[in-house]
Specification:
- It contains 3 helices and 3 strands, in the order ββααβα.
- It has 87 residues and is of the alpha+beta class.
- It has one domain.
- A 3-stranded antiparallel sheet has the order 1-2-3.
- Strand 1 and strand 2 form a beta hairpin.
- The chain starts with a strand and ends in a 6-residue tail after the last helix.
């Protein structure tokens, strides 16, 4: 399984996540569904490991217990990392 390691920035500097590079068609459909519960559930399936914290600044097991803006930053970084190489 090919993965990509991402480091967050700003107030989440030091937070890291390792995500799967490839997705199934079902995960892609859920990510693009426009429904937050489906998209976030699908996104959580991409995460192999992380060191995210909750709103109480304590480590979380389930990434969905982390702040939404940290998840958004992670998803944006994952999308950029999966862009085709322009060569």
């Amino acid at each position: 399984m090919e993965t990509v390691k991402l480091a967050l920035e700003g107030k989440y500097a030091g937070w890291t996540a390792e995500l799967r590079k490839q997705v199934s068609a079902r995960i892609l459909l859920d990510l693009e569904s426009g429904e937050a519960n489906r998209a976030l559930g699908a996104f959580s399936k991409l995460i192999v490991s992380h060191n995210f914290k909750g709103l109480d600044d304590k480590p979380v097991e389930d990434v969905l217990d982390a702040p939404v803006d940290a998840l958004t930053q992670t998803l944006d970084a994952w999308v950029k990392a999966n862009q085709p190489d322009p060569k």
